[in-house]
Design goal:
2 copies of one chain form a homodimer.
Chain A (H helix, E strand, L loop, with lengths): L5 E5 L6 E2 L15 E4 L1 H5 L39 E3 L1 H6 L5 E5 L9 H14 L4 E5 L3 H13 L2 E7 L4 H10 L2 E5 L3 H15 L2 E2 L8 H15 L7 E5 L4 H16 L10 E7 L4 H7 L26 H10 L3 E5 L1 H15 L5 H15 L9 E5 L16 E2 L6
Parallel strand pairs in A: 5-13, 6-7, 6-9, 7-8, 10-11, 10-13, 11-12
Antiparallel strand pairs in A: 1-2, 1-3, 4-5
Helix pairs in contact in A: 3-4, 3-7, 4-5, 7-8, 11-12
């Protein structure tokens, strides 16, 4: 058996194909590229039994990843994050079968580690020496740390308002770090120019095709953790949307491999955004296949502050094809939801994760989610990366005082 | 098979025994209590093969844990943290076979989650409704969150200088949180008084016997991840020392179960402290079996700022019985080590973890560690919980600027 069953890259818009053995970014038509695998060949030699004795990390699915030689794997042990029951919160929102996929329990404390692990590994395999990216924080932190582990240098540009902890992570890794007085789109322009001029490997969201393969493993894990049964609904906080595109791709690949029964309906995928930045929600409401740039976007859930995602059409397609939907939530309410999750389930989720839980609550109230359905919410990172979202006053005692 | 093979509690100082079915804290002689298991009975029905299909969390070892009924398990998916190779850092410090057990990859971002998960579960089983503890931060965060998940209330007292993120975690969980203008020892006195007066369940370090059982699973996992072979050396940043006592207990239990070959020498255990708070190191140098209170203790590695550990004699015994040692490191140097670990291995470790890596470097320089030895360093938490340890200056660009 080969380590990877990747065959080639293809364009989901114009169907043009590209080799996976050389550097490729966007299609000549401007679309992101996706990875194709020899699934029919793989289905004959690969079954869930093969996984039983493998390590609990995302490399257990290496046949479905684009890295051809194991020696190029750059790993900090990422993946197989907990899928935990949320019975108290579930009762509170009348979704008894509510589950959280907790992506805070991963190196760097955010799901971005998945894309970085696979993306950096593939970059290493392709001989890349220096990568560059714009980021809202967590992706830059993950990519610069994994690049450091691979012995690669990195150039990271992030908005000055990005969470300060992610700055520290990038700086500590030895990355060339810059702040920009603007949004991630401004950072993107600076990186694009520098990449063209200096020959840096541009790993902006979906401008390299392998990050999505790392994110895809969230979908593979959810299916494996549910014993190869799909849940009814998966909610995902959506900025660039790579995770949602990846989860959708994973579920389809599992169907093609025959690992889930053909009668099983795909889960309804839900893209969750903030009212302050909801381009996908707006497009979905209007039945469109592309989103419009969201002016003056603003939300406390910084990771989903993406005014126009390059893969918006792939996100929207996944929603339409799974009978899913897109929901915008209110920033104040998501902070209340974050507090309830901690009080009822003992988990300090990130604001983006709280947004997705709040969306589940709203969709249940509207009847879009039924009480008997199994619902998986993605918490994309640890709340400890966003300490400023918690506003507290604590009494101070002197030694010898009594309570 | 029973879910747990616990038999009773016993005092390691005076050998008195206690029931594990009722609340017990310290022995009447003042010593912490330890849990004993029916290992001979268990060894007849339990082998590593039993583990293969179990979830990758610490409950895979439930026979060796004190929770009798699975329904009392309070879990966020903690455990089976990565054991990752550190080849670049290893080359740098001439320990080619250097490994990190990364306890940052766990709910709450610190190894305290293990003690909290098992301790809170057992408290639930014993019918506890309200617990109380003093903390240097991370333990309080973990216990208050797990208590919330169990539907239990908690009272937490922490020094005003404890990492501010851990304050947020406690507050968010709904704990009754207090700061004290002093050290953890001052917090301890306040909690002790309140527990006595109000009948709270005091879960101070080693004042309840089950936290150590949770921490023990680090030792079980290291052995399993190395395919039931012991490494030569394990380094552990030591404050209260519960993790080190637990790892030692785990290794002995594995020997008694016959899961490691009887010829295998126990790993040499190393207690790592800061020069600003090194009571165990001082005691070890003098060959003593108890430590003296360290006056005016101070270190940037806040989690190991414990001037006098109640289980000091157990830590020292573990060092003597494994031919281990105790090492103090310098705060400035450990911050340099933290930076190297990020640059060379892509991991942002906590200051306590950096201290343990620095100790490995020093022990190699002194020849106490040999170049051919397999060395496991415990990183007890994620660096992102301590953003203030990273001091950075970053250039700021305007939109449209070039790099």
């Amino acid at each position: 058996m080969s380590y990877s069953y990747m065959s080639h890259l293809y364009c989901p818009k114009c169907s043009k194909t590209y080799s996976a053995d050389e550097e490729n970014h966007l299609c000549t038509c401007g679309s992101p590229l996706l990875v194709d695998y020899k699934l029919e060949e793989l289905s004959k030699v690969f079954s869930p039994d093969n996984l039983v004795k493998r390590q609990p990390d995302l490399w257990r699915y290496h046949e479905l990843l684009p890295v051809k030689e194991e020696e190029n794997k750059v790993s900090l042990g990422e993946g197989m994050t907990p899928l935990i029951k949320c019975p108290s919160l579930g009762t509170n929102m009348d979704i008894p079968n509510l589950l959280m996929k907790d992506e805070g329990v991963i190196p760097t404390g955010a799901f971005k580690a998945r894309g970085a692990a696979v993306g950096v590994s593939k970059a290493k395999e392709l001989g890349v020496k220096e990568l560059a990216m714009p980021t809202n924080g967590n992706a830059g932190a993950a990519w610069s740390l994994y690049a450091a582990r691979a012995g690669m240098s990195s150039t990271i540009v992030m908005p000055i308002d990005a969470p300060s902890i992610t700055r520290n992570e990038c700086a500590l890794s030895g990355a060339n770090l810059y702040l920009v007085n603007g949004l991630i789109s401004d950072a993107g322009k600076i990186v694009g120019k520098a990449s063209a001029e200096k020959g840096l490997y541009d790993v902006s969201t979906l401008k390299e095709p392998y990050r999505i393969e790392g994110k895809k493993t969230m979908g593979l894990e959810i299916a494996e953790q549910l014993n190869w049964e799909f849940p009814d609904v998966i909610l995902y906080p959506t900025g660039g949307g790579v995770g949602l595109i990846g989860i959708y791709k994973a579920l389809k690949e599992l169907q093609q491999l025959g690992w889930v029964s053909p009668e099983q309906k795909l889960p309804r995928l839900v893209a969750v955004q903030s009212e302050g930045c909801a381009p996908i929600v707006e497009a979905w409401k209007e039945g469109k296949h592309e989103s419009a740039f969201w002016e003056n976007s603003e939300t406390i859930a910084f990771g989903i502050n993406v005014p126009k995602a390059i893969g918006d059409f792939l996100v929207l397609d996944a929603l339409y094809e799974t009978d899913g939907c897109a929901v915008a939530v209110n920033d104040d309410d998501l902070l209340k939801e974050q507090k309830w999750i901690a009080e009822l389930e003992g988990s300090f989720v990130c604001p983006e994760g709280a947004a997705a839980f709040l969306a589940a609550r709203q969709l249940r109230q509207e009847g879009w989610i039924q009480a008997n359905e199994q619902v998986v919410v993605l918490n994309t990172g640890a709340g400890i990366k966003y300490p400023d979202t918690v506003d507290i006053e604590v009494p101070t005692l002197e030694p010898g005082d009594s309570l």
